[in-house]
Write a structure and sequence with these properties.
Muramoyl-pentapeptide Carboxypeptidase, domain 2; alpha+beta; 8 helices; 11% strand
């Protein structure tokens, strides 16, 4: 089903960080699942491919996020595929990305105060937080970074690279008039991605055309939900799986 109607992407402000982090979390215990098992959604774990320390070679998301990704993919034209670049993110990776960006912004803008540097960094990377009441969005498994590609695996032009530190990375940045044909095509690609993801129930972070949320505090903030369903989560090891299974088995006796 092709939902592409070339609607403009609306201009939206960045979230009120204090307000969104105050959103209550009613954990649903929705498990993390690997996206690469699907034949309908492409996977390219970008940070692992870029050799970021502790990045995982798979893109994991909550089970309901996975279902909504499948729905978004089904809304695209038959010759275009949805590609997941990142999902659940280890805390150490979040820490590395934020610290690295902070240092680079500070070096390039020596006149900025510490608060201004951090505010600038937030446009691209959320501060690392394992606080149960306000975890980093990607730590919840409810955030996903996505793009589009053709069926042969060629990434479509989205106007900037993934994670590019540029004002043009804002989702609506290409909506200004008088764009040349190449920029118009990138704009249309963004519109297509935005439309499919929105219709599948995701919300978008205004400063990143690739970042979408479902179920976490950012999603609750942008969608108007009373509470989030996803807090911080970790990949379960075999010991945790066995413990949960044995505990459940013992309780059923």
């Amino acid at each position: 089903m092709n939902i592409f109607n070339n609607k403009m992407i609306p201009e939206r402000p960045m979230p009120d960080w204090n307000k969104y982090q105050a959103t209550p979390i009613h954990e649903s215990s929705d498990p993390l699942v690997p996206v690469s098992v699907s034949k309908k959604v492409g996977v390219y774990p970008a940070y692992y491919k870029m050799n970021v320390a502790n990045a995982v070679p798979e893109c994991y998301v909550r089970a309901q996020v996975f279902e909504r990704l499948l729905h978004a993919a089904s809304l695209l034209p038959e010759d275009i595929q949805l590609v997941v670049l990142d999902g659940w993110r280890p805390f150490s990776v979040q820490q590395y990305l934020f610290d690295t960006l902070i240092d680079l912004i500070r070096q390039a803008n020596t006149y900025l105060s510490h608060e201004q540097v951090e505010l600038e960094a937030r446009n691209l990377v959320s501060p690392p937080s394992a606080n149960p009441r306000a975890p980093s969005p990607h730590l919840t498994g409810g955030s996903v970074d996505v793009t589009l590609a053709d069926l042969d695996g060629r990434f479509l032009d989205m106007g900037t690279l993934f994670d590019e530190a540029s004002p043009l990375s804002w989702t609506c940045a290409l909506e200004r008039k008088n764009r040349d044909p190449k920029e118009q095509q990138a704009r249309d690609n963004r519109r297509l991605l935005y439309s499919a993801m929105s219709k599948a129930g995701f919300t978008n972070l205004p400063s990143e055309w690739w970042h979408y949320d479902y179920g976490n505090q950012l999603w609750a903030y942008h969608s108007g939900a009373d509470a989030a369903a996803y807090g911080a989560v970790t990949l379960p090891g075999i010991d945790q799986l066995w413990q949960n299974q044995l505990t459940t088995h013992a309780a059923s006796r």
